[in-house]
């Protein structure tokens, strides 16, 4: 079976909504957060991709890439239909099955990136390298004991151990993330779907780790968000009040200039903060956020947010009073 070795951690069907089409290809601009440099006109085939990232090498050949097949044949295959429904202002009613597909996509994109894997692997390797450097003085047998686990370095170097350990960690975390994805999707199955369209004076960007949460991802009251393109974002909202929010429809809000300023500033800055390496989008949009990050008065912005939230809460209380909810 001919299956892809180069596996996208952020799907191309998602990235193309932030890219420009040239003939049959799509090109996106990137900003390398660590190196602080722009990369323009990057083919989406060559970004957010790693060789055999979802491959389980010890499984039989016909099962090695089951996770890549799952993401490609189900979650990603549904995304073009999901995207069109979310950005279509005339699409309101959604079935339980279609809401499940939307929620599945958002939750899967939270768990499938490499940031969690690489963060753990870096921590583990640093700890083990420190132990390895102390080993000669304390363990002539060239072993490190970690609880009940004994790690032997007889006839192998630390680099050889690291390569083996990195692969085992990647497979273990991917398997665990797949289980967590399924669990969290079921926990969020009744969430409402809210789409926000921002004012033309503001733009959204994305990153190699695009899903953000207003709190702990497992907090049932947290909002889970992802930008859809430069003009739209979608939020999973806990379903609490069927009078004010109907989870059988897509809730649509067209943000005015002021609301767009707050929403895009928060979400775009989240993309910088949670990215592993790249923020992505159109260069002029990335440049705008870079300039904003450099010049933003954070305390003033917080005060403005609080005042605006208070104003919106007063409006909500007024609506509740009218409808007696």
Describe the structure.
The protein has 325 residues and is of the alpha+beta class. It has one domain (6-323). Helices cover 47% and strands 19% of the residues. The protein is built from eight helices and 14 strands. The chain has helices spanning 12-15, 66-87, 96-111, 115-138, 158-187, 257-274, 283-295, 298-323; strands spanning 6-8, 20-22, 25-32, 37-43, 49-51, 143-146, 149-152, 192-197, 206-207, 212-213, 224-227, 232-237, 250-254, 278-281. Strands 2, 3, 4, 9 and 14 form a five-stranded antiparallel beta sheet that branches. Helix 2 packs across helix 3 (96-111) and helix 4 (115-138) packs antiparallel against helix 5. The longest helix is centred in the middle third of the chain and has 30 residues, at 158-187. It is globular and about 75 Å long. The mean pLDDT is 88.
Describe what is shown at a glance.
With 325 residues, this protein is of the alpha+beta class.
- Overall shape: globular
Given as residue ranges, the uncertain stretches (5+ residues, pLDDT < 50) are none
Provide the succession of SSEs. Answer: EHEEEEHHHEEHEEEEEEHEHH
Helix proportion range: 40-55%
Compute the CA-based radius of gyration: 23 Å
Please state the average pLDDT score: 88
Tell me about the biggest sheet? 5 strands, antiparallel
Secondary structure tally: strands: 14
Domain unit count: 1
Class derived from helix and strand content: alpha+beta
Q: Beta fraction of the residues?
A: 15-25%
Number of helices: 8
Measured distance between first and last alpha carbons: 57 Å
